Amino acid sequence: MNVPILSQAPRIVVLGSLNMDLVLRVPHMPRAGETMLGQSLSQVPGGKGGNQAVSCARQGAAVSLLSCVGEDAYADQLLAGLVADHIDVQHVQRSARDATGVAVISVDDSAQNQIVVVPGANLRLQVTEQVLRPLLQDAAYVVLQFETPLEEVDQALRSARAEGCKTVLNPSPVQPLPDAWWPRIDVLVVNEAEAAQLSGSPVDSPKSAARAARWLQAKGVGQVVVTLGSQGAVCCDQAADGAEAAAHWHRAPQVQAVDTTAAGDTFLGALTVQLAAGAKLDEATQWAIRAAAICVTRAGAQPSIPFHAEVATRTEASLWSPV
User: Fold this and answer.
1) Catalytic residue among 88, 98, 259, 265
2) Range of 256's domain?
């Protein structure tokens, strides 16, 4: 797989959430009314914004994070971890009204998870054009998701367009997008459930993922990637005028999964950095799949996110096909 070597760190801005993850290891997901004995409880730095920022930084980018935390011990721990990954946190706000966000994550013996998020201070995030536009002037991409107020996502999309900065949107937790947003999205990254809800059609295979990706691209998005878990991902690149967009299915290597938490965020960060370095969408997708494959073999959110050098050592053949 030919991927660009990072001669210098691309600048990426991430606007998103910071949570302390309370991770419960359980034999299986409890049924309604069931009481069970858990295997362990741990505190792990997380939140989609934090995870995506860490993934971008560990893949070699210079990252600035816009987020909001409380004035509590969880906030101090989260910020210390980000600083250790050389992430610029000077624009992370503190709320005196709300506690730092918390996610309660149950992970079962098959490595599947269930997540309940209490957003807390994440919903207090406020960004202005005066703050955003200088940050975006020399940034390659701004990365966005839906664990912060949509008004701030809208502001970031508009500011990015004004500054010529490309945008990556991961609409999670999924909800309908305003019509004006579609043409402002350069890269849309969704999983099967998100692709199905946004497109209005089931997504349960590479072929149905390709149909959904083309439908989403027709709304005005530049590039679309639909992640399929252990099946890999389908990417849909921009097409010439009048031609159907080419969709390619990239398979994932077979690994023994331990915990799938942060796999999607790892994928997104790795994809974004490769695109910022000049990789084609197919190449960036293959690289991101490898990064996510490493992530799921480890426990926890941010501790499981691999570094660029770890992904570079994977030697699986790239298996892909048109869909």
Assistant:
1) 265
2) 11-322
| Nearest alpha carbon to residue 98 among 129, 67, 128 | 67
Per-residue pLDDT tens for 230-261? 999 999 998 766 567 789 999 999 999 988 88
The reply to whether 214 falls in a domain is yes
- Helical spans, DSSP H, in 85-188: 129-136, 150-163
Task: Give the CATH number for residue 308.
Answer: 3.40.1190.20
Which residues have C-beta within 8 Å of that of residue 34, sequence separation ≥ 6? none
What secondary structure does DSSP assign to 240-294, as a single string? -TTSPPPEEEEPPPP---S--TTHHHHHHHHHHHHHHTT--HHHHHHHHHHHHHH
Residue 5 domain flag:
no
Residue 265 appears among annotated catalytic residues: yes
Residue 288 lies in a domain: yes
As for how many domains the chain has, the answer is 1
CA distance 34 to 292: 32
Report pLDDT digits (tens) over 265-274: 999 999 999 9
Q: Where are the alpha helices (DSSP H) in 93-245?
A: 129-136, 150-163, 192-199, 206-218
